[in-house]
Amino acid sequence: MREGRNFYKGGFWHIISRGVAQQKIFQKKEDFAFYLYKIKETLKKHPLAIHSYNLISNHIHQLIEQTSRVPPSKFIASLHTSLAVHINKKYSRVGHLFQDRFKAKEIEEAALVPVSLYINLNKVLEKLQHFNRPKISKREVEKLLKEAERDPWSSYPVYLGLREDGVTQANYILSLISDDIEKARKEYRKLAVHYLTTGYFLKTRDLIFEI
Predict the structure, then answer these.
(1) Who contacts 158 (Cβ-Cβ below 8 Å, separation ≥6)?
(2) Strand, helix or coil for residue 190
(3) Domain spanning 12-108 has what CATH number?
(4) pLDDT over 90, % of the chain
(5) pLDDT tens digits along 104-117
(6) CA-CA-CA-CA dihedral for 105, 111, 117, 123, to nearest 10
(7) Beta sheet of 49-56, edge-to-edge order
(8) Cα angle 34, 39, 41; round to 5
(9) Spatial CB neighbours of 107, under 8 Å, sequence gap ≥ 6
(10) Which helix (H) or strand (E) holds 13?
(11) Average pLDDT in the chain
(12) Model confidence over 55-73: pLDDT tens digits?
């Protein structure tokens, strides 16, 4: 018997959804674009706030806030059913697209900034794990962050004011840094560098995945 989810209005959750058997969820660029389109459509039926996200080929990270009496599970179920039907039809596949049900970890307000960074920089963190070195130079970090700033499937560029996606509500978390939005964006970028060069992401990962 599955354990119930204790969702409630005003709560924040880190959501992670993985492809079945570690297979790809998204195979082409248009699959990522379709998912973002379906997010906007699904929000009309099951409103909530998406504070950050990162779409990776075989898994999805989201930081969401329940803003009404409707639990996030309704939003995720509707969104992922639509995606599964679309992907199965497009690629002539059958069966589940996602592995089991999504994982949800409640996040306290004090951890919202680091968790948003963990999500926004998740692709960068995966690359760093493959470097197999105890330290990474600031030059290498800057190169990786420049790549992240051009990532169309992550909310990181939205936090820096580089693009709008009609999905991410970044201002709340930025306001936890400063009431001045431009100052907050610059500080967020500095935190990203600090986050990567000090290994602070390990603490955040432990927070997210603790049992």
Answers:
(1) 164, 165, 168, 170
(2) helix
(3) 3.30.70.1290
(4) 77
(5) 999 999 999 999 99
(6) -30
(7) 49-56, 59-65, 12-18, 103-106
(8) 95
(9) 12, 13, 14, 63, 115, 208
(10) strand 12-18
(11) 90
(12) 999 999 999 999 999 999 9
- Using an 8 Å Cβ cutoff, are 74 and 15 in contact? no
The length of the chain is 211
β-strands 49-56, 59-65: how paired? Answer: antiparallel
pLDDT the model gives residue 196: 83
Place of tokens 């993985």: 18
Domain edges within the chain: 12-108, 111-209
Query: Where does 24-151 have alpha helices with state H?
Result: 29-45, 72-90, 112-120, 122-129, 138-149
Give the position of tokens 């079945």. Answer: 20
User: How is residue 92 written in tokens?
Assistant: 């002539």
Report yes or no: 193 and 156 within 8 Å, Cβ to Cβ.
no
Distance CA 117, CA 203 (A): 12
Question: What is the pTM for the complete model shown?
Answer: 0.91
100 alpha carbon, distance to own chain's centre:
19
**112 and 177 in contact (C-beta within 8 Å)?**
no
pLDDT at 2 over 90: no
Kindly tell me if the per-residue pLDDT of 133 is higher than 60.
no
